[in-house]
Amino acid sequence: MKDIRRKVRRSQTIVPFGVGGILDLRGESFVAADIRSWAANAERVDSPRLARKLGVEGFRSAPVIPSGKAAYASRSGPSYVRFPKWLFCPQCREMEFWRLEREQRDRQPTCGRCAGKPQLAPMRFIQVCRAGHMADIDWRRWAHSRSEGHAQRQCQVRRLRFLATPESSGLEALRVVCAVCRAGRNLAGISQKNILKQTGVECAGTHPWQYETDETDPCEETPQAVQRGASNVYFPITHSAIDIPAPAGLSEEDESTQRVVNHSLWPDFNNEYGSPISDAYRAVIANQCEVAEEFVETVRRRHADEASSMSSAGQDEDLSIAEWAAFSAPESVADSKTFSVRRTHLGVGHEAPGSMQELAEGITAVVVADRVREVRALQGFSRYEPSSGDDEEGEGGRVVSVNTQTRVRWLPAIETYGEGIFIAVDEQRVSAWERLDSVRDWTRRIMRNMDASFKADRLREKTGPELLPRFVMLHTLAHQFIRQLSYDSGYNAASLRERVYARSHPPGSELPPQAGVFIYTAAGDAEGTLGGLVRQGQPPNLVETLIRLLESAQWCSQDPLCADSTGRSLANLNRAACHACTLLPETCCEIDNSLLDRTLLIGDGEVPGFFRGVVQAALEESARAVDVP
Known about the structure:
Blueprint: E1 22-25, E2 28-32, E3 43-45, H1 48-54, E4 58-61, E5 80-82, E6 86-88, E7 95-97, E8 121-122, E9 125-128, E10 134-135, H2 139-143, H3 150-154, E11 160-164, E12 174-178, E13 184-186, H4 195-198, E14 224-227, E15 235-242, H5 252-261, H6 266-271, H7 276-289, H8 293-313, H9 319-328, E16 339-344, H10 354-362, E17 363-382, E18 400-401, E19 410-425, H11 427-434, H12 437-452, H13 456-463, H14 469-488, E20 496-501, E21 516-523, H15 532-536, H16 541-552, H17 599-602, H18 612-625
Parallel strand pairs: 4-19
Antiparallel strand pairs: 1-2, 2-5, 3-4, 6-7, 6-8, 9-10, 9-14, 11-12, 12-13, 15-17, 16-17, 17-18, 17-19, 19-21, 20-21
């Protein structure tokens, strides 16, 4: 690949321009190559909990090139390949199949036939398949698919023109024509499901970034023509974990173990174990951690045994367990530069209004996080349809790994720092509310839709084996919380993220129940953010924010259609929730704006919402405040 550089933010190398994603940049179109193209100087990102869950040795982040130094920097970031390769001139309408040898450093492709050398534009349509492959449409075959006469049917020339006719509108006005035999066809119907198969096109089983020596993947899927910027071209599969330090009060041996595991050379020691350099790594770690080399070897063996036992049992570590424990008991967590939390309260006294007192009885813990560190990793992607899980035979698109040729040893990731607010609701109250027949029946209907959805496996990773009413209620609360904080805290909604702790556990499990939400913001630098959320999480701001969000959740501009809905969104996974009242940007939500319902939050005539008492008390206070003549 030629060294032709463009700018992209480090956070964008994970989402939305991670491996397999299409990047539109000043009239140019590129696709991110797999991690084989990443430079060896990619920075390591430490997150042992997330690495164990995903079964990899570690994570790496794209190197940062200082602003204005890209032309002189020796380091290079991830590689992007020009795609689609079929380009056309906006003036003469001639189409060109662009080749790598024609690339010039820091210059866009231009037309050599027209005066002024206008920049060539990429074709709007490409082809993808459910197996994750993507390629240019064979425009020569498309133009000759309705050939008339022997000369047109035998034409093998690839000199094409992309014409726009003013006589019609829509895709009928766009036409690909052979410049030699004059055969042509417009783009009407190109988005139909089997239109490419009817023209004799088959999936080549390749990705745009593959080398000539790479073996193709035999693919029997039918290729589909889609627009280059369509939302179903790329479905990234990302995972994230909050960095949780070791509990306070560890024994001396446990503290030594933590020092060894957190050492910067620990990933290198594990990766190079068995090679001559591993002895040097062991000696340096032992010297700097002030332990014996035998102790370092014992820790390595113990971690290896734990990893093998987890993989053989086929179990995934539930990352929410440690996070819930840390937020529920912040005083038990050791001081850390990456995780600073402290307990606070709503600040509701006996003289406070009844709505605030009712709210305070339902919330048992408020914790503000002055500083948290989150690691986000890209595991793979799917195309045309979202993946239902790791089963390639299941419904939905197949998951494509970030390394399309060999087993993945590490994943691309970024570390971000931010702040947040954690709220836990009263376990006794929420348990009693969940036992109500109307609440259980209402949730069972949503669970039946979830079980029938192709997203069932992915959703159960968050909800647990059973969808509890508290999960839908708290998830809706998190969305309303983010919408209200976007007005009060100074952050826009797209800058905030959620983590819902309401997971059900298997029968007989001794794990504590969860019932809380964590709203946080994370920026892509080491300094974190500005304290807006922490301020809103302290009295008296938080209680006022919660009252306002519950009041605003009562109505929607699409009511009564929204409030009375028995199934909305993809696979009917939502009830009373729409873009006007509850849905958020996709970067905010853990589960793609699914499993939302305002009814379980504030209630209606049939189902009592968990916070119905708060809403009724607020309405009565508002009514008493109005002067009646």
